Amino acid sequence: MKRKNVCLSVIMSLILLICCGCGINNTESKNQSSVLRQEAKTEEKVQQTIEITAKQEYKEESAEKNVTDEKKQNIEKEQPFLVQIADDDPSIAYALVRIQNAGGLLPLPTEGEYTRTIRQVADDGTEAINVLHLTTNGIWMEDSNCEGHDCILEGEVTLENREERVLWNMIICLPHQLSVELITREEAVSLLKR
Length: 194
Description:
By secondary structure, this protein is α+β, with helices and mostly antiparallel strands. The protein has 2 domains: 1-78; 81-193, Sandwich (mini-chromosome maintenance (MCM) complex, domain 2), CATH 2.60.320. Helices cover 46% and strands 26% of the residues. It contains 3 helices and 8 strands.
């Protein structure tokens, strides 16, 4: 009988332990579910924040692109180049300017001198600026915001020295992808007829 009581006690204890264990497991399970739900909500909030940030960045990039495009259009209006020579144009020579997406002629003055600022806007909004100086007999790069200023150091191209220089009749600014050639009126007319 004692033995039966002991066995019953052991069995009852085991049942209690199993039941308690189930209760603990249920509690742990509930806690885990709660934690998982909170993690899911947090992850959803993070995802929403990422999407909002991405939309804001896209809007900012679009606004910057619009500003850059507007800058480019304003610069194109600001620096028109000749694309044909009028019969009554008294110039004897021209600076043929070539830049990335444009180009044209700038007449050498018949008297005096002048400068022409050539601006280009890159896709990232940075400006490439070259200041070309034109006289009755030649051209030189007066200023530039490129690194090294090699184009400034290339010196003056004149009608007299254009075939003797290392770069002949050209001034080149590689960082700004710009070239300027001193050409005669006849060469300009021939070039435009092509």
